[in-house]
Design brief:
Layout: H1 5-16, E1 20-21, E2 27-30, E3 48-51, H2 56-62, E4 69-71, H3 73-82, H4 91-100, E5 104-107, E6 116-122, E7 126-132, E8 140-148, H5 150-162, E9 166-170
Parallel strand pairs: 2-3, 4-8
Antiparallel strand pairs: 1-2, 3-4, 5-6, 5-9, 6-7, 7-8
Length: 174
């Protein structure tokens, strides 16, 4: 196996050197993929994470281009508190599926949270991530993620309709 020493040392450097601080004063560390985030962060969050841009097909559909994705420490803490049913091994999988491979996009709270979109990946379960697309912010921000079954997904759809939201698209061709 060939080792890419540049990437190895760049990653080691990132582990010890935050790229900045978020609005709450928490350090931000950048990772090339969700899978590179240490599992420890989902047990004991100690910093925020900057991830790559959303896929081009999503950027083209949504209209936000070339913005990296921020996952704040306080959001990780909130998700751990509110969604304790998510196993440690599932956090990165849900984030990868929902944020970087969505099949459904919903504007689920058009009045109270007009910048929020729900990204959903349909599969054995529904991986859901709510993302804040605020034009005034430097990054796109993940504000929630979870795993739901078909019953809960149907409830989400009814709630979207009741609140005047909309399905933006069901992506099949990329």
């Amino acid at each position: 196996m060939r080792v890419n020493y540049y990437e190895f040392y760049k990653r080691r450097l990132n582990e010890n050197n935050p790229i900045g601080k978020d609005i709450n004063g928490d350090s931000i560390y950048e990772y090339a993929t969700v899978s590179e985030i240490p599992n420890e962060l989902f047990k004991n969050p100690s910093y925020s994470v900057l991830l790559p841009e959303i896929p081009k097909f999503v950027e083209n559909l949504i209209g936000f281009k070339n913005r990296k994705v921020l996952l704040k420490k306080k959001v990780i803490l909130k998700t751990l508190r509110d969604h304790s049913e998510i196993e440690l091994s599932m956090h990165k999988k849900i984030l990868t599926l929902a944020v970087y491979n969505p099949t459904v996009f919903m504007k689920n709270k058009p009045i109270s949270k007009p910048n929020y979109l729900a990204f959903v990946n349909e599969g054995d379960y529904y991986a859901v991530s709510t993302i804040d697309f605020d034009e005034t912010k430097k990054y796109i921000e993940i504000v929630d993620w979870r795993k739901v079954d078909s019953k809960e997904f149907d409830r989400m759809i009814r709630k979207v309709s009741a609140e005047g939201g909309q399905f933006l698209i069901k992506a099949v061709d990329r």
